Amino acid sequence: MIAALFLTCAIPSAFQGAAVEPVAPQLRVAESALTPEVPVRATLSADPARAQVGEPVVLTLVVNRPGDVTVQPLELESGVLGSWMFLERLGAPRSETADAAGHVVETTSWRAFALEGGDALPPIEITYDAGNGPQKSIAAKGTIAVPSALAEGEDAARPAKGFREPVAWVGGGSRLWIAAFALLGLLAAVLVAWVVRRRRRRAQPAVLPSAAVELDRLANEPRDDSLANRDLLYAVTRIVRSAVDAHVGELRASRTDTEWLGIVAADARVPEGARSAARRLLERAERVKYAGDAPTRFATDEALADARAIVESLEPERRAA
Fold it and tell me: What is the DSSP-derived secondary structure letter of residue 133?
């Protein structure tokens, strides 16, 4: 008894004069059940409970509080918190009464993804007031499995989730290549044939009646007056000049009759008989054009005879060429 009394007197005297240091308030981790010390219970969970790095999941914060305890609204919308990237808040927070005692359950959800592998959810801080000033608490965190981007022994990042592996080519080898080249060659040959045929169609000249056919047609036309005979004489002159130019391969349509006759008279490629007949024909036409002679049917018959002689003299040489 004396020893107990001694201890009772000695213990207070041992702490007399010792300074008592104030203890700074610390964050409390929410308990699984409401207690007087921590009247607010906050829980954070992830859905799904397994994801890859960078794969979005839904984080849900559930806060259970008494009705007379206020909780400050969270200002977290998007951004980085810990090793997590918050993308967006999914709607407005939802509140509902949990029981007859007046407890309130508030639910807030975000879409977020992990920036690195691990099993830690982001630390979300809750600020509440139970009547004795603002207090802070960190929500209890559920579990999630996020594999690391690199497994043990790997030296390169894994392919992004959602992309399939490239398909390896297991083709038919050389036979398939030969068939492909043969098909391309066939298509090229068809294309070349089509282009050549099209060009030939475009370049094919119109088939014109021969000079002899033209002269026969003129001989059968009516020649009842001097005007018709003059037109026939002009047409015969044009046919003869075109036939001679085609025979020598030179175009002299821009020359006058006098110039043209001077060139043809000295051209040995034109038969002598054709040159003489051409001179008679053009001189007759010149008298009609410039002297005002009125050609008769007899004059046009002579012009047709000279023209036929010229054309017939050119045809054998043209066939020999």
Answer: S
